[in-house]
Amino acid sequence: MADTLEFNEIYQEVKGSMNDGRLRLSRQGVIFKNSKTGKVDNIQASELAEGVWRRVALGHGLKLLTKNGHVYKYDGFRESEFDKLSDFFKAHYRLELAEKDLCVKGWNWGTVRFGGQLLSFDIGEQPVFEIPLSNVSQCTTGKNEVTLEFHQNDDAEVSLMEVRFYVPPTQEDGVDPVEAFAQNVLSKADVIQATGDAICIFRELQCLTPRGRYDIRIYPTFLHLHGKTFDYKIPYTTVLRLFLLPHKDQRQMFFVISLDPPIKQGQTRYHFLILLFSKDEDISLTLNMNEEEVEKRFEGRLTKNMSGSLYEMVSRVMKALVNRKITVPGNFQGHSGAQCITCSYKASSGLLYPLERGFIYVHKPPVHIRFDEISFVNFARGTTTTRSFDFEIETKQGTQYTFSSIEREEYGKLFDFVNAKKLNIKNRGLKEGMKQSYDEYADSDEDQHDAYLERMKEEGKIREENANDSSDGSGEETDESFNPGEEDDDVAEEFDSNASASSSSGDGDSDRDEKKPAKKAKIVKDRKPRKKQLESKKGKDPNAPKRPMSAYMLWLNASREKIKSEHPGISITDLSKKAGELWKAMSKERKEEWDRKAEDARRDYEKAMKEYSVGSKSESSKAERSKKKKKKQEKQVKGKAEKKGAASKSSSSSKSPAKSVSESFKSKEFVSSDESSSGESKKEDSEEEGVASLPPSSEDSASGSD
């Protein structure tokens, strides 16, 4: 006979809800692991007192009773598995697996029996229904009547909230049967009553979920959160895990309490209680117990008088009362040296902590994902920018979590961590349509060649080189645009509509124009087209050298036809998978040969890029100089034409001096429509005044005497 029996898709009944998981029976005892929460129930073989096999709604079920009164129910077995289980119980646990069916007569009167943590309503020798007394939240009595109220089950659509029992009046030994019934229920019920004094109180602690400031009162069996609006009573039995996480700023600490079932605020459920502490906050704590009681109850884990950081005191007290280990971050360190990664989940930004056995995200909403429930992880490109990437996790139940906006520098650290934990890594493109084939080799992804990682590294190197080149080029051009010795010709070159104005003002009044504030405005305007030039440089140049391929891609290009001939009709995705397997199985000597080829290709690329960048700079400078020269020649031609026009004006004014004199004196209200600069008008006025002051010629004097 086998030493162990394992059953998948078994359901454990807990507080009226059915939790699926895996059941394992061994010589040492019975172990059930909840698939949803990861909680493990371990029943030692020596503690088992009775085993019952019966027919239930989901097929057949197994009920186990322990010597200390606890009851465990597991459903989902097939009828054919009874013989196997019965033989196993006889051989290893020395127990007879009794068959006992439920009564289905439909009668509503019978006998109530209390056994351990269970209330059983029986008709004859057959049970009709059973109520775990830990589900009872309140028990009230009336005349010949007992009312039981139950905790609400958040996982069920419909919850049983109340049951009433009618107890016939009898006088046996002067004991009231109603009170006796109620006392039996209350002795085992989960009724939280704040009787007595609290062991200790922590005042005004900052709580992130649920949000607010709360006083935390520590009682022997439960935790009392007292706020301005809401109060919560949390039994220690509902605490699953404790986490102590350092904030990224190294000045604060998160203390996270995982709860199942969660606490409720209206329709909102809080599966995590998150407290935020400052590392500088200290406290001196005195427990409301004498030293003997402290020593007897906590066995040296706590002392009556303690002092230290506030977060240390809270975590130490909780660890002692809940009797669970505190989970802290492992050996992971991000790019900045912190033990967490800044990212976004849904609409909020938070911190993702890679732990030794899972991931936890704080804080809105908090998420805890265990490694054993992860189907695969995926590294995806960021949707908005190439400076970040997304980290996707899909569980075996099909739930997907996407942590976005992670800095690109964190990729290597996170990839190494995931790879070391032997998690299945898949690219988005290979996932579609190939899920079944990948599931068959889920454990072989650990050491496979990661083409995406190589591509990311290559692109990162090239992007950095291009960024350095562009930053050098932009620095030179910016210095040119702010060169104090720059001529006005360059400004006119960018703004052709004002070219004549700038040239004439430079000829007429250059000294004063250099001191005018308008010069600054010209420099600011001059930068806009420079940005456009930079943007155009970032575009892809068809003449630029092509990026080199990695060793794997060089080998794949050389071997693609060979793989196709060996596997006729193979698809592209299957070919990629087959190539990855061949590359993985290749010897180091052959891989080194392709590594050398990839290194040679990279050197050739770097050399070609240097030649390309030098050539592009020289061509752009030549084009710029020729453009400036052409503009200068055009302005010189324009200036000569203006001088000829001025000379013709002077000759015409010499013929009619009286007219020129009258035109030189213009009214103050006169506004010229000409948009030329002040330098031009001043120059023309001075020329006209000079002509008007000449003495009249002999012909003019003769005509005047006439």
UniProtKB/TrEMBL annotation:
Residues 458-551, 609-706 are annotated as: Disordered. This is FACT complex subunit SSRP1. It is found in: Nucleus, Nucleolus; Nucleus; Chromosome. Belongs to the SSRP1 family. GO terms for molecular function: DNA binding; histone binding; nucleosome binding. GO terms for biological process: DNA repair; DNA replication; regulation of chromatin organization. Residues 474-496 have a biased composition (Acidic residues). GO terms for cellular component: FACT complex; nucleolus. Residues 695-706 have a biased composition (Polar residues). Residues 545-613 form the HMG box domain. Residues 545-613 bind DNA. It holds the Pfam family HMG_box. SMART domains: HMG (SM00398), Rtt106 (SM01287).
